[in-house]
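ARCHIVE CARD
CATEGORY: sequence design from structure
SOURCE FIELD: tokenized fold
FIELD CONTENT:
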């Protein structure tokens, strides 16, 4: 039996990677976290290396995420839009593994007319099928859902009477399954002004609505329901996909989760190379932060340092010991992304000594250099 250092529960066995494989590096395992916590932490790590700007760097640097497939992890933006130069209409686009852009299947409302767009008939059929299924046995639209606490989910319930649809907003617990999820385009986005409300299919084949406001989304879905009862046909509006040259890439990520992931990555490496550090009470607030997101310490993003970050193809964790604290600097991709925090009262090294843990993400080798 082991004790999970995060939730303190006992567990049988659950080895995890010292440094997440998604960022490259050697396959070194550590035993310190239960399966349940590990599951949660994987979500945090994915937020960092699949959604945040780190995901873009990872793709450019050619990190091979899934070793069995041996392919470079392509950046998948959570928000990809394309504007037709001629008509000004903004479309939802998707991105294939090879960074090629395609028009997602979507129904878009322009000047009170519904148009349908796709470049693959199969995907459009899936969209239509999903919408029909939703209409016949769900009729719920998720307005807001906090991932950690489904109790606070805000959703819309639509009811059909003889000839019309009524809706009411509901707050409470909802298991998300086959509901339509609403995403608002921030007002600060440069394409916000040109955005027409639409429904589309995302990568996981979920129905999503993108609108400027909740109100616009609700009006759209009620209008679409009425329209779908009329059995009128829809046509395409797109003038020519050749007019769409520029793809607008948006990041949509939770910066706190990324921060939790960075603290966790740094802690795991410290626990691996300095096993005694696990049991020290000084690390407890940092474990709590990874587990619950309650931050009681200061930390920050740092700039690249040309001496510290001079190695190529590597992530580095620098530890620096003073009399009163241990300073931890996590530098990803040769300093393109640097995060630093201090742990007061933690003594691992001799005072004024440095240690450098290097993760070579091209040759997949980790090493520790504590003679600096
Ligand atoms: Zn646990």
């Amino acid at each position: 039996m082991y004790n999970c250092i995060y939730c303190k529960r006992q567990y049988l066995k659950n080895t995890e990677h010292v440094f997440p494989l998604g960022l490259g590096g050697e396959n070194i395992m550590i035993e310190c976290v239960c399966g349940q916590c590990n599951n949660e932490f994987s979500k945090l790590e994915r937020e960092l290396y699949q959604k945040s700007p780190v995901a873009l760097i990872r793709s450019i640097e050619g990190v091979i995420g899934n070793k069995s497939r041996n392919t470079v992890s392509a950046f998948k933006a959570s928000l990809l839009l394309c504007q037709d130069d001629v008509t000004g209409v903004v479309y939802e686009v998707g991105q294939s593994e090879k960074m090629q852009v395609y028009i997602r299947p979507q129904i878009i409302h322009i000047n009170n007319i519904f148009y349908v767009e796709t470049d693959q008939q199969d995907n459009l059929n899936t969209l239509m099928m999903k919408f029909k299924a939703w209409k016949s046995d769900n009729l719920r639209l998720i307005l807001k859902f906090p991932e950690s606490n489904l109790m606070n989910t805000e959703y819309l319930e639509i009811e059909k009477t003889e000839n019309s649809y009524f809706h009411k907003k509901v707050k409470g617990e909802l298991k998300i399954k086959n509901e339509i999820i609403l995403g608002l385009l921030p007002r600060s986005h440069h394409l916000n002004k040109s955005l027409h409300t639409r429904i589309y299919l995302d990568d996981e084949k979920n129905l999503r609505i993108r609108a400027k406001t909740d109100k616009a989304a609700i009006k759209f879905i009620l209008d679409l329901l009425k329209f779908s009862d009329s059995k009128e046909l829809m046509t395409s509006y797109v003038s020519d996909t050749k007019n769409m040259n520029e793809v607008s890439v948006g990041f949509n990520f939770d910066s706190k989760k990324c921060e939790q992931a960075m603290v966790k990555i740094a802690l795991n490496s410290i626990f691996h190379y300095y096993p005694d550090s696990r049991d020290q009470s000084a690390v407890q607030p940092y474990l709590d932060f990874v587990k619950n997101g309650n931050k009681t310490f200061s930390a920050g993003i740092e700039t690249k340092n040309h001496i510290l970050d001079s190695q190529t193809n590597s992530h580095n964790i620098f530890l620096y010991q003073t009399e009163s604290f241990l300073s931890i600097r996590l530098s990803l991709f040769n300093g393109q992304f640097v995060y630093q925090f201090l742990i007061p009262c933690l003594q691992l090294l001799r005072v004024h000594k440095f240690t450098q843990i290097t993760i070579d993400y091209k040759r997949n080798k980790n090493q520790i250099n504590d003679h600096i």
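CARD ANNOTATION: The mean pLDDT is 89. The longest helix spans residues 255-273.
SHELF: design records, drawer C
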